From TrEMBL:
Name of protein: Alpha-crystallin A chain
Pfam family, one: HSP20
Top-level taxon: Eukaryota
Originating species: Macaca nemestrina (Pig-tailed macaque)
Single GO biological process annotation from the record: protein refolding
PANTHER family: ALPHA-CRYSTALLIN A CHAIN (PTHR45640:SF14), HEAT SHOCK PROTEIN HSP-12.2-RELATED (PTHR45640)
Keyword Repeat annotated: no
Location of the protein in the cell: Cytoplasm; Nucleus
Family: Belongs to the small heat shock protein (HSP20) family.
Residue span(s) of domain SHSP: 22-137
């Protein structure tokens, strides 16, 4: 006789051995958040995170050194089935060539948090040309003459 739900002892043992695997296969408890998507291509680094159960006031996003930390928490509140509280922490290493001064974060109406930053181009392509302006100074140079 086959059961749709595994025995509790077997489920607990599988969760203790490998909680991430159980989560992916659907044998574990329902996840608070869907799996985040991280995209890092040549020009941009982006994290997409479904946080539909959180309002902007419940979320904090901060960058410390080479990491971005995303934290969501809302206190206990009543829903249709009783009381519920939620909290999560996510931490991601930023690529070394992300321009940390240009990072941005937004929350869509349907609860998708998007954290992104452009990448600094470390080497110029041979076909890429950039003009460097020459500024005129009013005082003489202090460089030694030849």
């Amino acid at each position: 006789m086959s059961s749709a739900c595994p025995r509790p002892a077997k489920l607990l043992a599988s969760l203790l051995r490998c909680p991430a695997k159980a989560k992916r296969t659907g044998n574990g408890p329902p996840s608070l958040l869907s799996e985040p998507r991280v995209r890092s291509d040549r020009d941009k680094f982006v994290i997409f995170l479904d946080v539909k159960h959180f309002s902007p006031e419940d979320l904090t996003v901060k960058v410390q050194d080479d990491f971005v930390e995303i934290h969501g928490k809302h206190n206990e509140r009543q829903d249709d089935h009783g009381y519920i509280s939620r909290e999560f922490h996510r931490r991601y290493r930023l690529p070394s060539n992300v321009d940390q001064s240009a990072l941005s974060c937004s929350l869509s109406a349907d609860g998708m948090l998007t954290f992104s930053g452009p990448k600094i181009q470390t080497g110029l392509d041979a076909t890429h040309e950039r003009a460097i302006p020459v500024a005129r100074e009013e005082k003489p140079s202090s460089a030694p003459s030849s």
